[in-house]
Amino acid sequence: MNAALRHVMALAAMMLLVSGGGADAMVRIKDITTMDGVRGNQLVGYGLVVGLQGTGDSMRASPFTEQSLRAMLERLGAKYERGASRSRNVASVMVTANLPPFVRKGSRIDVNVASLGDASSLVGGTLIMTPLKGADGKVYAVAQGSLTLSGFTAQGQAAQVTQGVPTNARIPDGAIVERELEGDFHRKKVLVLSLKNPDFGTAVRIAKTINEYARKRFGQKIAAARDLRTVFVKRPPKVTVARLVAEIGMLTVQPDTPARVVIDERTGTVVIGHAVRVSTVAVTHGNLTVRIAEMPVASQPAPFSKGRTAILPQTFITTEEKKGNIAVLKGADLQELVSGLNRIGVKPKGIIAILQAIKSAGALQAELVVE
User: Are 239 and 267 contained in the same domain?
Assistant: First the structure.
């Protein structure tokens, strides 16, 4: 048995062990749901990074860098003529950040910086004050600070070494929040829980678990499953939203996972859910290899003749067909399905082809997702 198949078997055994032989573990409601009205907002801005050691934008190839530099210097009271600088110590960058929910004015958030021009590296650079705007065009934060990079580049006359992405950087706590997001979350009468993996069974279990807790805590039912994605929770009187969210978030439920097989053909990865079943089907897998080799030969003319040397084609064709094993698959559970595939003795690429063929035959009782 090859190493790839042993890895698949070990992975399947580990999945069965973690899941308790096919049953999902109990998880907290806060880990499988999100609260409507509690989300972050994306911010973006355009700025300049200075202090680079000749690895910034070239003013000729990136004219917007020179325009931005001239505008910044004019605002600071310095005169700058077009084409006066040829240094490559400045780079234009895009600055992005995520504004967390309930953040207050004066708080600090992390920012990401990415080169916009032809700069080769941002190592040693400092971001100049950059306003960060939201989708509504308003400024919510201002970023500035020294860049932190994990990548680097070194170049000589005949060789170059690059590790990571030296044109992408980060500034921890690099932006200060200047505007707060207005909201009425603390006044909500009805909370909406959205499932990260929508499923009717999981939604009903969440509502049932919350109601069992609410009858003991508040003496009434407060939750109802609306659909496979949404659970409504009515806030009882004299209870704050924060306390209610904290209490129901710690409750545990057993989520229901769909029968699904996920295949990534690029990497040869196959993930099989424990609920996958296969109807009785016989599978055989064999490979036919055809090799074609071209070995042209030179034909020399006879001595003292007026002939010319010619190149004659010569082709060798060989075929090889490996032994194909046949196995009967009847996947009562994940372990039997993986064992049946391993008995055939194929590599992960072959397992992908077999699963796709089983699905086409109508014997795979699961959703097949090909990425």
Answer: no
Q: Minimal CA–CA distance to 90: which of 70, 108, 109, 106?
A: 70
* pLDDT (tens place) for every residue of the chain, 371 residues total: 444 444 444 444 444 333 344 445 789 999 999 988 788 899 999 999 999 988 888 877 788 888 888 888 888 888 777 666 677 899 999 999 999 988 899 999 999 999 998 888 898 899 999 999 999 999 999 999 999 987 666 666 656 666 678 889 999 999 999 998 877 788 889 999 999 989 999 999 999 999 999 999 999 999 999 999 999 999 998 899 989 999 999 999 999 888 888 888 778 788 887 778 777 777 666 654 555 566 777 777 777 666 677 777 776 666 565 655 555 555 555 666 666 666 666 677 777 777 788 788 787 778 888 87
215 within a domain of the structure (yes/no) = yes
CA 176, CA 195: separation in Å to the nearest integer? 32
Of 177, 202, 221, at which residue does a domain stop? Answer: 177
Which domain CATH number covers 203?
3.30.70
Rounded Cα gap, residues 348 and 309, in angstroms: 50
Distance CA 50, CA 65 (A): 11
Distance separating alpha carbons of residues 195 and 35, to the nearest angstrom: 9
CA–CA distance, 366 with 360 (Å, rounded to integer): 12
Residue 247 and residue 264 share a domain: no
How many domains in the chain? 3
Phi, psi torsion values for 224, nearest 5 degrees: -150, 135
To which H or E segment does residue 215 belong?
A: helix 200-217
Structural domain for 202, as ranges: 184-253
Question: Residue 26 falls within a domain, yes or no?
Answer: no
- Round to whole Å and give the CA distance between 285 and 347: 11
d(CA 71, CA 297) in angstroms, rounded, equals 71
Looking at the fold, whether 364 and 270 belong to one and the same domain comes out as: yes
Residues 300 and 342 in one domain: yes
| Structure tokens belonging to residue 193 | 């829980």
Is residue 264 domain-shared with residue 338, that is, in the same domain?
yes
